[in-house]
Specification:
6-stranded mixed beta sheet, globular, 25% strand, Beta Polymerase, domain 2, 4 helices
């Protein structure tokens, strides 16, 4: 199994490759037992949200990781992929604004996403 941070980098790179909007990573280790990292991004439509979630899931599965839980896929407003030590949250803009995870986890460490993206 890859190190958790490497998996987060893999997820962020996958989301970036499919043109996810406003990707954020928050390190929540020490603040909660829910996850060490929370990945957040926006898709412009339910189809785009599903595409982003699907691609992240495929790329992470190729890296040896499967989600423990997947939620919200059918509705297409917010897809949550739970990998235990980290989560991926793919929102539409209205739902992202409503739940405001960045504000909820404002005491977490914001990770510079540009440093995580690997180009091939």
């Amino acid at each position: 199994m890859k190190e958790i941070f490497e998996l987060v980098k893999t997820a962020v790179t996958a989301l970036d490759a499919k043109k996810a909007e406003d990707v954020r990573v928050i390190k929540t280790a020490g603040l909660t037992d829910l996850a060490e990292y929370i990945v957040i991004c926006t898709g412009s439509s339910s189809t785009k949200i599903k595409t982003l979630a699907d691609y992240a899931e495929v790329v992470l599965e190729e890296a040896g990781e499967k989600p423990l839980h997947r939620e919200g896929y059918m509705e297409g407003n917010w897809v949550l992929l739970d990998y235990g030590a980290f989560t991926i949250n793919v929102f539409n803009s209205r739902t992202r604004e409503f739940y405001s995870l960045e504000k909820l986890w404002q005491h977490g460490e914001m990770i510079d996403v540009s440093s995580l993206i690997t180009k091939e």
